[in-house]
Write a sequence for this structure.
């Protein structure tokens, strides 16, 4: 972010007080900050009481082997029991857990907690029947259909860690994840609906299986009815295996530190990291934050998080948090513009949604379409709005509050990461006054700071690196199969202090409130999706015509950042041919997925490098963002930038 944007941000002085009604009945009040800080263990033990434990813990936190944490040591529980059975046992079996809305109009299903319990139990029995045992990994590659939630909870029920792979990832990306965590079973579907048309999924699983031989069985949900290739030795229909299974299943209690899931996310190297979350602490953290940050009143609220289940937001705030809390929620299969651009607002109106959680990139695209579309709907049921995934620009915040929330609704700008598992920095809707663009301060129980390179806390009005200074229950436990990378990535920069390095830059304003500014490493944020520059560079270099590639994230009005690539072709490829740019964009799509497709590719003769051979991405970002190119004195060859700029002005 440029200095100019920064100072504009810090001049933002609009303030929104919490509505009296929400303040008065707020789940969490001001005093919680003090209470949590004075005795952290006691505070987290109190939060852990939200869950049903088969055996209580004897120690809240074991940090003796830092950074390898153990939370609720000795405790035993079952995550699926906590998300489903206990609500049924408490007499709330008839309560709707999920109002599912398919993309085709009138394709809806309301699923009660009792029905969910039966479905999850059947799926758990079916997985066991397929040979899945406690500890085995199961991959889930599904669209936003109820079976995705059922599959996750069924895995949790039998203690088989799941790894959900976003349906937009390609066969190659899927294969590398299957391989990395050695997934024995994949749960997929024939396809899903996307913008009014069925879009196939199973072929990607078939193709992934040609690249790795770890998979023994593929369980296939029939969603669209489209044709699929079938391998009798491997493929099993969900409706055969699950529908015919028994609805009786006794959940086993697992150790609090039993692995719950692995979620892959991009880091600074080419290989995605498998972030490991475990059972007890993760469930405590997600249920506590879902209750506190959204001020959830499970009896009356209708909650909707628009995230896909393939991302951590879908895990923490569509599955584990809301279901552990016994909430009623909406789950929507499709895109916001199908069959027309008011679809989301129609859903809010139809289901009287009270809490809505989405991403700035979506808000910006609605802003662009104009307020006439949302204005056609009655959204007076909304009482709290949430934002996640990237910094929300003040204009988008104010529009969201004003046009969607009718100026009644607090906006909670929630900062967190795949690694943190739960919301860490956010306003509390009944306590904090809203400042457009600021995620404000860490929630009760969490300690964060903004520090210099040397680890000194920065004064108010200054910027630095965001760190988390105390462990928290839903923290990642390691990177799957790579403890060293776990230590290097998060715990080595401030090893002496024992702090977690988040990889984000942030600023403290004059009140001490935090403004998260974005990544300080080679990670990009495109529409709230995390992408690694190196991963896309590796994909480009794997193309036979490419010699070298450099990727930067350039500022983009719609998507926050956009992928811009600079590519040097191999000599034998000549000028690459007329369609070289499209060819390379499609190649990236094939290697990683459509979300990683570069917005722009420039074929260049050279890349700017330092004398030690490091690519100077800062200069490429200047070009991609159409700025005057900055200081080139550390370049090995200072004429390189002239060559690149010539290319740019000639439209290359
Ligand atoms: C990165 C984490 C958390 C679930 C979705 C993304 C950025 C996330 C905010 C926010 C400013 C934010 C950070 C972070 N980010 N939320 N409210 N304000 N930046 O999870 O893919 O793990 O990405 O997203 O840069 O490090 P993720």
């Amino acid at each position: 972010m440029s200095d100019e944007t920064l100072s504009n941000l810090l001049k933002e002085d609009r303030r929104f007080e919490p509505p009296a009604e929400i303040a008065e009945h707020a789940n969490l009040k001001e005093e919680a900050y003090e209470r949590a800080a004075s005795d952290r263990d006691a505070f987290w033990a109190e939060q852990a009481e939200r869950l049903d434990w088969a055996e209580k813990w004897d120690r809240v936190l074991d940090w003796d082997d830092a950074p390898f944490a153990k939370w609720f040591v000795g405790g035993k529980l079952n995550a699926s029991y906590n998300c489903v059975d206990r609500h049924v046992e408490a007499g709330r079996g008839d309560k709707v857990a999920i109002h599912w809305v398919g993309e085709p109009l009138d394709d809806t299903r309301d699923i009660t907690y009792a029905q969910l319990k039966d479905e999850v139990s059947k799926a758990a029995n079916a997985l066991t029947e397929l040979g899945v045992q406690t500890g085995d990994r199961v991959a889930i590659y599904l669209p936003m259909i109820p079976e995705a939630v059922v599959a996750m909870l069924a895995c949790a029920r039998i203690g088989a860690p799941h790894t959900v792979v976003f349906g937009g990832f390609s066969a190659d990306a899927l294969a590398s994840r299957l391989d990395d965590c050695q997934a024995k079973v994949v749960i997929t579907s024939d396809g899903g609906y996307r913008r009014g048309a069925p879009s196939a999924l199973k072929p990607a699983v078939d193709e992934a299986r040609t690249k790795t031989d770890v998979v023994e069985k593929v369980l296939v949900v029939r969603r669209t009815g489209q044709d699929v290739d079938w391998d009798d030795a491997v493929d099993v229909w969900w409706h055969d295996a699950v529908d015919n299974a028994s609805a009786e299943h006794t959940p086993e209690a697992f150790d609090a530190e039993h692995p719950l899931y692995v979620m892959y996310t991009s880091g600074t190297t080419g290989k995605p990291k498998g972030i490991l979350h475990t059972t007890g602490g993760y469930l405590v953290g997600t249920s506590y934050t879902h209750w506190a940050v959204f001020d959830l009143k499970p009896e009356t609220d209708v909650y909707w998080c628009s995230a896909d289940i393939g991302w951590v937001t879908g895990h923490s705030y569509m599955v584990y948090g809301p279901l552990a809390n016994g909430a009623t929620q909406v789950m929507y299969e499709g895109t916001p513009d199908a069959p027309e651009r008011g679809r989301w607002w129609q859903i809010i109106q139809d289901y009287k949604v009270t809490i809505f959680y989405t991403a700035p990139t979506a808000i910006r695209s609605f802003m662009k379409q104009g307020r006439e579309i949302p204005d056609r709907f009655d959204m007076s049921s909304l009482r709290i709005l949430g934002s996640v995934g990237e910094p929300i620009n003040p204009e988008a915040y104010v529009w969201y509050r004003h046009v969607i929330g009718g100026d009644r609704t607090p906006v909670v700008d929630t900062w967190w990461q795949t690694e943190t598992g739960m919301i860490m920095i956010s306003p509390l809707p009944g306590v904090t006054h809203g400042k457009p663009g600021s995620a404000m301060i860490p929630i009760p129980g969490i300690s964060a700071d903004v520090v210099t390179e040397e680890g000194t806390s920065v004064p108010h009005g200054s910027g630095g690196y965001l760190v988390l200074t105390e462990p928290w229950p839903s923290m990642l436990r390691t990177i799957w199969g790579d403890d060293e990378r776990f230590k290097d990535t998060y715990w080595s920069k401030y090893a002496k202090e024992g702090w977690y390095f988040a990889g984000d830059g942030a600023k403290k304003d004059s009140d001490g409130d935090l403004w998260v500014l974005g990544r300080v490493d080679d990670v990009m944020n495109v529409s709230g999706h995390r992408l690694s520059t190196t991963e896309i560079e590796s994909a480009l270099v794997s193309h036979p015509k490419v010699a070298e590639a450099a990727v930067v994230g350039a500022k983009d009005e719609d998507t926050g950042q956009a992928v811009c690539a600079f590519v040097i072709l191999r000599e034998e490829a000549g000028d690459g041919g007329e369609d070289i740019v499209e060819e390379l964009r499609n190649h990236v799509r094939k290697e990683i997925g459509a979300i990683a497709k570069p917005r722009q590719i420039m074929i260049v003769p050279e890349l700017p490098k330092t004398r030690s051979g490091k690519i100077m991405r800062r200069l490429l970002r200047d070009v991609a963002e159409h700025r005057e190119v900055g200081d080139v004195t550390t370049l090995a060859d200072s004429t390189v930038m002239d060559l690149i700029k010539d290319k740019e002005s000639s439209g290359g």
Observations:
- The pocket of WT7 is lined by residues 265, 312-313, 388-391, 413-418, 439, 502-504, 516, 518-519, 525, 528, 530 (CB under 6 Å).
